[in-house]
Structures are given as structure tokens and as C-alpha cells.
């Protein structure tokens, strides 16, 4: 809890880094009607994929700094030498990252969905799957961020590492909203999205902790 409170305090001190992913997400979605078509019926068909791709790219923008500042000021060494497992510290940072990136994206999704012509009846489902999906993005992204934390320009490598792992979340999350749009059952893709999120929360902090220890040893 102490580390989590520290992460929240540091996040408020770096407000510009919090605003950038949200601004990017809004700009991407606002440009789609201009670039594709202003027809709301056609946009509604494309809306699930647009929302998910924009959320994925917005999350990638903030992953590179997940451990970088702690690595630069020696905070990682202190976390690694504490009595608690390093995975707990990683989990606290992941939750903090999701609170300031994934949660705002989820709360903004009804407004952005309306811009793309999504019907109101699918908004609760859209918010739910985006909450699960962005949490998974943060968890999986922590592994990639831990692997490249010692590199000067690891942003591109980080994207190459985590993007293939994001694809199942993208498929099932988009499929759930698309099924709801077509009045079909969305239970299966929703459950798959939830299962991936639970698996990621349980496993990725330990993998990221191991990667951080390797970086510290180097």
C-alpha cells in the first residue's frame, strides 16, 4: 500500500505523461470519421475495432516509463532488497499504471463510442471489456517494460515484444462488442477476455520481477 500511494503521488507530479495517452486516444478516434466516412451506421460497424486499437496504442505510449524512472534513481534496487517479494512491487506499479491510463480510457469510452455511432445498449459491455482489456495491457506491458528497462531507446523493442501478446485480447474484446452489436451472444468472448485478465494479473508480476532482477544484475 505504501508503494502504491507513492506511485499515485509520482503520477500526479508527472501530469503531462498522464494526459498524453488520453489526448492521443481522443485524437485518433476523432480523426476516423474524417478519414473513413461520416456515416454513423458504417462507423458503428467499425467502432469496436477502432476503440480497441486506439486503446492499445494509447497504452503503449506510457509503458516505456513504467520502470525507467525507478531504474534511473536507484528505486528498483531498493524494491529488490526489501523483505517483500519484488512481484508485489511490480503489481502495485501495474495497478497504478492502469488507474491512470486504462481506467480513464474505460470511462471515456461511452463518449468516444457515441462519436463513432455505437448504440447506447452496448456501452456497459464496451466499458467492461475495455476495463478488462486495458488491465491486461498493463500487466503484459510490465513484462516488456522490465525487459527493456536498461536500454536507452527501448520503446520500439518494447512494442515489438508486447504487440503479439496483445492480439488475443484485441480479438476477444472486439468480438464481444461486435457480437452485441449484431444481437448475438457475447458471453464467450467476454469470458475469454476476463480469463486472460485474471491469468495476466496472477502471472505477469512474477515474470516482470524476474526480468527486473536480470536487468539489475547486468
From TrEMBL:
Q: How does it sit in the membrane?
A: Multi-pass membrane protein
Residue ranges crossing the lipid bilayer per the database entry: 18-37, 43-66, 86-107, 127-149, 156-181, 187-212
Q: Do you know which Pfam families this protein is assigned to? A: CcmB
Q: Give the UniProt keywords, A-Z.
A: Cell inner membrane, Cell membrane, Cytochrome c-type biogenesis, Membrane, Transmembrane, Transmembrane helix, Transport
Q: Which residues form a coiled coil?
A: none
**In which compartments does the protein localize?**
Cell inner membrane
The answer to whether keyword Ligase applies is no
Its function, per the record, reads: Required for the export of heme to the periplasm for the biogenesis of c-type cytochromes.
**UniProt record similarity statement:** Belongs to the CcmB/CycW/HelB family.
Record's protein name: Heme exporter protein B
Amino acid at each position: 500500500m505504501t508503494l502504491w500511494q507513492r506511485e499515485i503521488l509520482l503520477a500526479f507530479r508527472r501530469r503531462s505523461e498522464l494526459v498524453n495517452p488520453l489526448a492521443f486516444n481522443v485524437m485518433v478516434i476523432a480523426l476516423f470519421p474524417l478519414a473513413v466516412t461520416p456515416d454513423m451506421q458504417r462507423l458503428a460497424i467499425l467502432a469496436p475495432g477502432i476503440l480497441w486499437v486506439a486503446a492499445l496504442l494509447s497504452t503503449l505510449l506510457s509503458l516505456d516509463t513504467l520502470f525507467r524512472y525507478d531504474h534511473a534513481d536507484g528505486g528498483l534496487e531498493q524494491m529488490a532488497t526489501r523483505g517483500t517479494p519484488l512481484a508485489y512491487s511490480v503489481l502495485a506499479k501495474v495497478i497504478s499504471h492502469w488507474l491512470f491510463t486504462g481506467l480513464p480510457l474505460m470511462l471515456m469510452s461511452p463518449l468516444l463510442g457515441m462519436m463513432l455511432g455505437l448504440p447506447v445498449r452496448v456501452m456497459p459491455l464496451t466499458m467492461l471489456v475495455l476495463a478488462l482489456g486495458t488491465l491486461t495491457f498493463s500487466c503484459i506491458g510490465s513484462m516488456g517494460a522490465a525487459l527493456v528497462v536498461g536500454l536507452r531507446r527501448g520503446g520500439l523493442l518494447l512494442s515489438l515484444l508486447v504487440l503479439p501478446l496483445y492480439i488475443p485480447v484485441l480479438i476477444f474484446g472486439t468480438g464481444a462488442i461486435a457480437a452485441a452489436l449484431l444481437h448475438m451472444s457475447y458471453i464467450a468472448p467476454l469470458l475469454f477476455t476476463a480469463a486472460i485478465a485474471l491469468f495476466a494479473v496472477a502471472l505477469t508480476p512474477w515474470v516482470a520481477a524476474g526480468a527486473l532482477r536480470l536487468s539489475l544484475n547486468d
